Amino acid sequence: MATAPMEPSGVRVGETDGVPQELVFTTMRTEGWRVAHLDAHLGRMREHAGRLGIAWPEDARAKAGAALVSNMPTDLNSLIQLSLTAAGVWAAESRPLTEDDEVALTCITHEAPRWSDGLTGTKHGGWEPYMVAKRAAVKAGADVALLIHDEAVVDADRATLLLLDDDGTAWYPDPGLGGVRSLTLESIAPGLASEGIPVHSGRITATMLVRAREVVLLGTGIGVAALTALDGEPVGAEGDDDFRSLCANLHQRALEDGWVDLEGES
Fold this sequence. Notes:
It is built from six helices and 14 strands. The N terminus is likely disordered. Helix 4 crosses helix 6. The strands form two sheets. Strands 5, 6, 7, 8, 9, 10, 11, 12 and 13 form a nine-stranded mixed β-sheet that branches. A five-stranded antiparallel β-sheet has the order 4-3-1-2-14. A hairpin with a 3-residue loop joins strand 11 and strand 12. The two termini are 30 Å apart. By secondary structure, it is an alpha+beta fold. The radius of gyration is 18 Å and the shape is globular. The relative contact order is 0.17. It folds into two domains: 78 residues, D-amino Acid Aminotransferase, Chain A, domain 1, CATH 3.30.470.10; 151 residues, D-amino Acid Aminotransferase, Chain A, domain 2.
């Protein structure tokens, strides 16, 4: 099982005594010296830091680059988690990329974690409930935990859900419910729109999922995968893979356009 990023103090994300305000983080793809969508990740990280009350330094780009370069395994494709503590310490830790563009995944439903004071929806130091949800999915023989609050989908343990309805509209969970803003979704949404598939947010229930034409999961590590079963019930029209294939192609194009080369930075 993949581990969370290590702080210089030896504390990992999700193991900071459950105090969200102690740390903000993001997870990126790397390939050699290249990092995918670095500016977008730093922009979201800065937004989350503001919500968590963590000061964002003026030289954040340089310090982030130095932390990444010092921990990038340039001989293999990986995921690298970049963190900034409330004390101003940057750190990064990598692990091999093993889930890239899985064709099909199964889910269980799991209660979505909630935090107060606008912290829900940020990637923070109290991440253990997301890890608990992932472990629950594995224990149940599934791949991913779909996080539910008040009978609506909020998020997944490491992905965002995107549903294609019978009218040809794509839906993702209402951000107001507390899900983490998906940079993978943002990278493919313009391409979907250009293909005639409008993308909207809204309240999505488990009943809507099992009746959808197709449902995909999007994430930095997962890439693009079809959601084929939820709590043992089939999801999506049998044999229909056009939407997942389109999303996967758009994702690959977005990656090709989004690489940032950090070779030479320190």
